[in-house]
Design brief:
Distance between the termini: 86 Å
Strand order of the largest sheet: 5-6-9-8-7-10
Structural class: alpha+beta
Number of helices: 4
Order of helices and strands: HEEEEEEHEEHEHEEEEEEEEEE
Helix content: 10-25%
């Protein structure tokens, strides 16, 4: 059919144009639908990535304290072994410190850190060995009333060590006369006498990193940091591990919780503030790297803490990674028989090893069997 330029479109051309348009519309619709599904999937991945980043930042903020190391009583009566670093992992224990079938794949990470939120300067002038009390300045009242994640706990800081204490009483009544070493340090009145009104007396009890009653005196705890004056700060306790999801039955989440403390009921990490959460995590693993190589295993760089139920992660491969067994925290020794800082024994966990930590790694396994590892340097 011959058609002039002014004749317009034929019926056949119109039909063909409509058919092509329909095909294009269907194609674009399918592409948009596919893109929408991909965006939904990507949104989930992004949410998980954001949650892991929040977790990493929360851990980094609290664990990386330059050269400050937190100590509690180790339970040992050997003078050189009385204090252990307050950083440990417990296989087959959930973040709320419970155990059981649902906690079999959880590794609890428990640690202490100074409170970042308060900037109240408090000085500890001396330790009164007779009364077993600490003499501090009166700004302690502002410090203890400041917002914080864990209450009624303080740290005495003499870098690089911090010792952890619970407070049982704050008193404005101070000994008169003060011990001689106190008089030299405390604020003075215009007549040169100690300004007792500027002082407070704290009755404390030392904290054991294993829980329970300490086996050494508060005097021995105070002697761990012998030089005064010292700085006083609030101390926080944290627990990281798996907990059942509050929204999805049969699903576990990995959480970082601030623990609560009271002199009467002790430590509880079950209902404290949740600082970070990664959803749908079915297992987590903890490993650590030391500043020194173990002579009996020179090729091993990382050691994963394992127990009766928590075995090795598939990411822990010999010879660069090996298991280190921790079965019962309450009976964990400060050091293994024959163990020294120069000759660590790698098969079993001991408290002494924690002083030599260079970095720690936290590996999370999600519901799709994907492994994600967060590594934090502690140097």
């Amino acid at each position: 059919m011959v058609r002039s330029k002014a004749a317009g479109f034929t019926l056949t051309e119109v039909v063909m144009a409509l058919a092509i348009s329909a095909i294009l519309v269907l194609g674009i619709s399918g592409l948009l639908q596919s893109t929408f599904v991909s965006l939904l999937s990507g949104e989930g991945d992004l949410k998980d990535a954001q949650a892991r980043m929040v977790l990493k930042k929360a851990l980094l903020r609290r664990l990386s304290m330059s050269n400050l190391v937190t100590y509690g009583l180790s339970g040992s009566t050997v003078p050189t072994d009385t204090h252990g670093r307050n950083l440990f992992a417990l296989p087959s224990v959930c973040a709320d410190q419970t155990s059981g079938a649902q906690c079999a794949s959880s590794t609890l990470v428990h640690f202490a850190s100074v409170e970042h939120g308060n900037n109240v300067p408090v000085t500890a002038y001396c330790w009164n060995q007779v009364a077993q009390t600490l003499i501090v300045d009166r700004t302690i009242e502002d410090l203890l009333n400041a917002p914080g994640e864990t209450r009624d706990l303080i740290a005495l800081i003499q870098p690089p060590a911090m010792t952890t204490w619970g407070i049982s009483e704050v008193s404005a009544t101070t000994p008169n006369p003060l011990p001689a070493d106190c008089i030299a340090r405390v604020p003075k009145l215009s007549n040169g006498q100690p300004d007792l009104a500027a002082l407070r007396q704290l009755r404390l009890f030392p904290l054991s990193i294993k829980g329970g009653n300490p086996v050494v005196s508060a005097n021995l705890q105070a002697q761990f940091n012998q030089k005064f004056p010292q700085r006083v700060s609030r101390i926080n306790m944290y627990a990281a591990g798996l907990l059942p999801s509050v929204t999805k039955a049969g699903v576990m989440d990995f959480v970082l919780n601030a623990c609560k403390f009271s002199p009467t009921s002790g430590m509880s990490c079950a209902d404290g503030q949740t600082l970070a959460k990664v959803e749908n995590i079915k297992a987590n693993y903890y490993s650590q790297r030391f500043k020194v190589r173990v002579p009996s295993a020179p090729d091993t760089i990382d050691y994963q803490i394992v127990g009766a139920s928590v075995g090795l992660a598939k990411t822990c491969e010999a010879p660069t990674c090996a298991p280190m067994t921790l079965r019962d925290w309450t009976t964990t020794p400060y050091r293994l028989p024959g163990e020294t800082r120069e000759n660590l024994i790698p098969t079993e966990f001991s408290l002494m090893k924690q002083d030599l930590i260079e970095s720690i790694s936290l590996t999370l396994v999600d519901g799709k069997d994907k492994y994600q590892t967060i590594q934090l340097s502690l140097e």
